[in-house]
């Protein structure tokens, strides 16, 4: 198929190797790992959003038969180091977190004490008996109250709740505003959500007193950084820690940080000299693992008469929750940096404010910059409404064209090898835009309201070290790989990624196969054990394909080079230039045709390992290769999403009629895996936009700690996704891989909301916040200025 | 999310079950399908000292349609009620409502008795039982008594079961072939409890005018509400579009929902009106289908 392009193995729709075990119940998740003699931990959590801890009495709990111990923040202070986050970022206050709080609790669900017992039942019995004397404090549960002058401090070491504040300006937005035909303001409010991995957090810590070594089993996306962090927080050397991350039931960004519960369990295993394990339950996961989103964006666009954007200003305010497990500027920063995406906007300014509140701490969640494309395309829709222009025309007039690339965005980031105009036009063609408008007009006459939303996404996928550096975000973007051809010619390879169900064992085996020249069935990918895997930065963002696949591909090329050199020597050739390795067989080009040589990879491997005196002079025995790879500062994929909806104005019910996405994610390693990511990402974006919502009441009580309250879309609520493909390779990455898997979230959020606003246009109302619940849409219509006011003056009539 | 410890009993006969319930009184809780009680135990919202597992009481898993009455044993699973030909013939409304309960695995386990006793104000079975004046059969040491649905549901998750009693069966009057019925359930996702649910049955006279109309609404109060339509002066009226809308508005005026954390009372009221309108139309379609 065309997706294979110049490749033999990359681009083939190979069935996922891991599915055999994963769908037949033979996966090995944390709970499948038997740890003899392990104790079970249960955390005692705060019932208050904000309260001073006056005293903790553990005697009654400790007296329960089967309880091995009850521990508090005071105990953990002795055995662990605090997490201090103080990256040199202007406008970001340093923060410090104790392993368990000793002075006060900061959100409903904050862990205060831990019970360790013979099983989880006893641990829960005892946890109920831990008596904690609280002095309730005023909870901060909104951005407004957090940022009000004299507000109660969530973190008393900070001067205010404004933990991070940055400004940026390029060009002259003030001047542009004065020149503008119109200045259009728009607002976008995204609610709090959480990751909901099927497998909640959990860990099993085994301390070997003889070796003074910790083996830490935990489902995690970044095993090596987790190991470093564990060692640092426990005050031991990295050589004393092994992290084993087995099959992991989803992460979505929730399994990156070292959480306080996990560190506590590791410290207790060491203290008690007995294995300790912890499996977070669903209520804990929804309430206290990590939250995401909850940000408010306001834009102000200075526009010309034809909708061209002359200048754009963004204000983004984020509710970061109570604790910083990541630098507080991190997520908002990416939104602000890539906001202008596919559009030519030279004059751009932003202001970012991140505030602490008495809620569970925020972290990155699949598309940390999820709101970006909604804000940008939603702003264009606001321009279209205000100027009575067609929203598609406003997009076209602002969009970057093929001849514009490489294009340096106002923030300095360089876009290249992307095709937003192409994906826009193919999506618009697929939905037959003009026919839709006619249908929309006809149905309005029958009292039915359909809408079409368009959202074009430029997705930042792979963050190289240079981006981290220039964006003021701590971290590195490199990845590490090794490839080992075994003596029989089969191949083991490893990379520092931590898979959570993406299909790495299949897709990454294809990158190794491509680089080396063997069938992917001969390649095994080993990840998730820090004694085996090289030190890489793990899985986050959409870096797996480019950074991980790229590193493996380059490493496999290195292996191939040596294999062919040996082959040339065996064939008495001066060089390997006329040789190639395909399906594990060495072939030689003679008169323009590839012919078998009779030598196989197995033959070469046998010599390399078992008969090294037959190797060319200077070649070391064995076939063992490794390298590290730092991707370009940033790679981008792009897509256009088109969503058709109908809103039932009597009930507010929103139905998705049709969903088309046109995506260009460069070289596709495995179309089955990519399709899964496209579907999963769009599903996640729609689920978040329509249903999911972390809810706190005015006292900071979490009201969404069950899956009956925190609603996740099922197959019944989601439409079929029609996917159109473009394949523009990135010229700076190995094999042209770009990465993908978060853009679908970004596009879905924007497309569905834009579609709702298109449907509701006759009523003169705009949905500027999510979720798009039926009661919200209904309430918008209740407050509509005049129903069907604009019915008579159809937009298209004026512009035809 | 582990239950507090309890003593587990698995009686083999109804008599034995009643004996256990009588002996342990308020400290005992029967469990049938466990689709609501299971999570409540795990979250420790329910902490009975004694759990009486009714799943061996196969004698309570039955459907008996005889003449005017469809009698259903308490341990009959939702899936059977939704699919059994005798229910679809004798009470198609009940079958249709049962088919919307939760998801397939939930319907495989959940029982009609469990749903009635659990008495979630938004649940399907209590709504249909209320609409149809079902008779609920409860048995205890002192014998068996029959309670009408209107008296059985007392408050949120509170029913007329006395010390040592258990629900053993429920009797629905068979729906006449000429009765039209409608059922509308509105929820955020398929399988969720209703925000509002409306069920209606009606019949027309020989002239196509309303003879009888009954409507019940779930999810808007502490128990399902059977709306008293006597004030609406419907009997003998022609079922026009505007008459149906007036009836729906009348229904909405008779309910008084509370403001929820995410759902305003006014939204529920408007939703009830719209669902009542749709359910009445559905029922009228069915009567016309029968008439023609």
Describe the structure.
The complex is a heterodimer of chains A (800) and B (292). Chain A is an alpha+beta fold. Chain A has a seven-stranded mixed sheet. In chain A, helix 11 crosses helix 12, helix 16 (504-516) packs parallel to helix 17 and helix 19 (671-690) crosses helix 20. Chain B is of the alpha+beta class and 292 residues long. Chain B contains eleven helices and 14 strands. Chain B has helices at residues 14-24, 37-42, 78-83, 85-90, 92-98, 104-109, 112-118, 124-131, 149-152, 241-253, 265-291; strands at 7-9, 28-31, 50-53, 63-66, 69-73, 135-140, 143-148, 153-155, 158-159, 166-173, 180-186, 196-204, 210-218, 225-226. In chain B, helix 10 (241-253) runs antiparallel to helix 11 (265-291). Chain B is globular. The A-B interface holds A 120-121, 124-125, 128, 281-283, 650-653, 691, 693, 695, 697, 703, 706, 708, 711, 713-714, 716-717, 773-775, 778-779 and B 1-5, 39, 43-44, 186, 188-193, 261-264, 267, 270-271, 274.
Please summarize what this structure is.
The complex is a heterodimer of chains A (800) and B (292). Chain A contains 22 helices and 30 strands. With 800 residues, chain A is of the alpha+beta class.
List keywords for this structure.
heterodimer; A: 800 residues; alpha+beta; Aldehyde Oxidoreductase, domain 4; Aldehyde Oxidoreductase, domain 3; seven-stranded mixed sheet; five-stranded mixed sheet; 26% strand; globular; disordered C terminus; B: 292 residues; Uridine Diphospho-n-acetylenolpyruvylglucosamine Reductase, domain 2; Uridine Diphospho-n-acetylenolpyruvylglucosamine Reductase, domain 3; Enolase-like, domain 1; 3 domains; five-stranded antiparallel sheet; four-stranded antiparallel sheet; 11 helices; 14 strands; 35% helix
């Amino acid at each position: 198929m065309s997706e294979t392009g110049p490749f033999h193995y990359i681009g083939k729709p190979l069935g996922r190797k891991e599915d055999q075990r994963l769908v037949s119940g033979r996966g090995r998740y944390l709970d499948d790992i038997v740890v003899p003699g392990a104790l079970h931990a249960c955390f005692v959590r705060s019932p208050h959003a904000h309260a001073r801890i006056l005293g903790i009495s553990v005697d009654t709990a400790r007296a329960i038969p089967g309880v091995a111990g009850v521990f508090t923040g005071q105990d953990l202070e002795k055995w662990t180091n605090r997490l201090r986050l103080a990256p040199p970022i202007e406008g970001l206050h340093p923060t410090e977190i104790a392993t368990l709080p000793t002075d006060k609790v900061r959100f409903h669900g904050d862990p205060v004490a831990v019970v360790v017992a013979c099983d989880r039942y006893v641990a829960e019995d005892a946890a109920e008996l831990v008596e904690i004397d609280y002095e309730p404090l005023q909870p901060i549960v909104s951005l407004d109250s957090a940022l009000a002058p004299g507000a109660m401090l969530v973190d008393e070491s900070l001067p205010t709740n404004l933990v991070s504040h940055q400004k940026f300006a390029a060009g002259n937005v003030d001047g542009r505003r004065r020149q503008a035909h119109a200045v259009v303001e728009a607002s976008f409010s995204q609610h709090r959500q959480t990751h909901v991995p099927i497998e909640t957090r959990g860990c099993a810590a085994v301390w070997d007193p003889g070796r003074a070594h910790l083996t830490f089993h935990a489902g995690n996306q970044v095993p090596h950084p987790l190991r470093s962090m564990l060692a640092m927080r426990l005050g031991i050397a990295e050589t004393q820690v092994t992290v084993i991350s087995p099959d992991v039931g989803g992460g979505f960004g929730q399994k990156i940080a070292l959480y306080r519960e996990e560190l506590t369990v590791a410290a207790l295993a060491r203290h008690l000299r007995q294995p300790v394990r912890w499996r977070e339950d669903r209520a804990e996961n929804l309430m206290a693992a990590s939250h995401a989103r909850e940000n408010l964006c306001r834009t102000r666009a200075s526009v010309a008469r034809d909708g061209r954007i002359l200048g754009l200003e963004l204000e983004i305010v984020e509710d970061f929750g109570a604790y910083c497990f990541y630098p507080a500027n991190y997520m908002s920063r990416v939104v602000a940096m890539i906001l202008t995406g596919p559009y030519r906007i030279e004059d751009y300014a932003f202001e970012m404010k991140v505030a602490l509140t008495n809620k569970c701490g925020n972290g990155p969640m699949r598309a940390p910059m999820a709101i970006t494309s909604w804000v940008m395309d939603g702003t264009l829709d606001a321009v279209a409404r205000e100027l009575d222009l067609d929203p598609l025309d406003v997009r076209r007039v602002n969009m970057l064209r093929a001849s514009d690339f490489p294009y340096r965005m106002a923030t300095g980031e360089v876009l290249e090898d992307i095709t937003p105009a192409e994906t826009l036009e193919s999506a618009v063609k697929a939905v037959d835009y003009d026919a839709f408008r006619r249908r929309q007009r006809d149905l309005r006459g029958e009292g039915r309201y359909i809408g079409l939303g368009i959202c074009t996404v430029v997705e930042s996928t792979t963050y190289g070290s240079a981006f981290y550096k220039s964006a003021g975000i701590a971290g590195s973007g490199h990845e590490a790989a090794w490839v080992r051809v075994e003596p029989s010619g089969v191949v083991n390879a490893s990379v520092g990624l931590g898979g959570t169900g993406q299909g790495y064992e299949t897709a990454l085996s294809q990158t190794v196969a491509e680089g080396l020249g063997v069938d992917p069935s001969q390649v095994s990918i080993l990840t998730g054990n820090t004694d085996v895997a090289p030190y890489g930065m793990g899985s986050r963002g959409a870096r797996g394909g480019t950074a991980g696949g790229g590193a493996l591909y380059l490493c496999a090329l290195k292996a191939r080079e040596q294999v062919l050199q040996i082959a040339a020597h065996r064939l008495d050739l001066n060089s390997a230039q006329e040789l190639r390795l395909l399906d594990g067989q060495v072939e030689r080009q003679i008169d323009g045709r590839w012919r078998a040589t009779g030598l196989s990879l197995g033959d070469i491997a046998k010599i390399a390992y078992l008969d090294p005196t037959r190797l060319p002079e200077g070649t070391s025995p064995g076939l063992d290769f490794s390298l590290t790879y730092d991707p370009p500062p940033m790679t981008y994929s792009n897509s256009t999403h088109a969503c058709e909806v109908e809103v039932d104005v009597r009930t507010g019910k929103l139905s998705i009629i049709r969903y088309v996405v046109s995506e260009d994610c460069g070289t596709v390693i495995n179309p089955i895996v990519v399709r899964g990511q496209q579907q999963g990402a769009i599903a996640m974006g729609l689920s978040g936009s329509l249903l999911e919502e972390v809810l706190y009441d005015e006292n900071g009580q979490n009201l969404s700690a069950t899956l009956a309250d925190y609603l996740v879309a099922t197959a019944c609520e989601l439409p079929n996704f029609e996917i159109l493909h473009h394949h523009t390779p990135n010229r700076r990455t190995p094999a042209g891989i770009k990465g993908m898997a978060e853009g679908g979230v970004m596009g879905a959020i924007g497309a569905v909301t834009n579609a709702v606003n298109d449907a509701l246009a006759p009523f003169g109302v705009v949905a500027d916040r999510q979720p798009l619940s039926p009661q919200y849409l209904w309430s918008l219509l209740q407050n509509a200025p005049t129903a069907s006011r604009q019915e008579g003056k159809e937009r298209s009539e004026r512009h035809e | 999310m582990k239950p507090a410890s309890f003593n587990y009993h698995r009686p083999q006969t109804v008599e034995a079950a009643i004996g256990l319930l009588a002996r342990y009184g308020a400290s005992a809780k029967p469990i049938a399908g466990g689709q609501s009680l299971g999570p409540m135990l795990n979250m420790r919202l329910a902490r009975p000292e004694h759990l009486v597992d009714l799943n061996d009481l196969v004698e309570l898993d039955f459907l008996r349609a005889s003449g005017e009455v469809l009698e259903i044993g308490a341990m009959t699973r939702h899936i059977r009620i939704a699919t059994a030909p005798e229910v679809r013939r004798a009470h198609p409304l009940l079958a249709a409502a049962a088919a919307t309960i939760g998801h397939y695995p939930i319907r495989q386990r959940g029982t009609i008795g469990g749903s009635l006793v659990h008495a979630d104000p938004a649940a399907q079975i209590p709504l249909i039982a209320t609409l149809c004046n079902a008779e609920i059969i409860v048995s205890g040491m002192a014998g068996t008594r029959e309670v009408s649905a209107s008296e059985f549901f007392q408050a949120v998750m509170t029913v007329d079961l006395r010390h040592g009693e258990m629900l053993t069966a429920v009797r629905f009057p068979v729906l006449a072939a000429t009765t039209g019925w409608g059922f509308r359930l509105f929820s955020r996702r398929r399988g969720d409890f209703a925000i509002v649910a409306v069920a209606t049955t009606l019949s027309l006279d020989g002239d196509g005018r309303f003879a009888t109309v009954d409507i019940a609404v779930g999810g808007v109060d502490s128990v399902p509400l059977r709306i008293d339509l006597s004030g609406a002066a419907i009997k003998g009226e022609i079922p026009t579009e505007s008459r149906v809308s007036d009836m729906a508005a009348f229904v909405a005026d008779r309910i008084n929902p509370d403001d929820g954390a995410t759902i305003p009372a006014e939204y529920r009221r408007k939703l009830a009106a719209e669902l009542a309108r749709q359910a009445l139309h559905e029922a009228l379609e069915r009567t016309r289908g029968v008439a023609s």
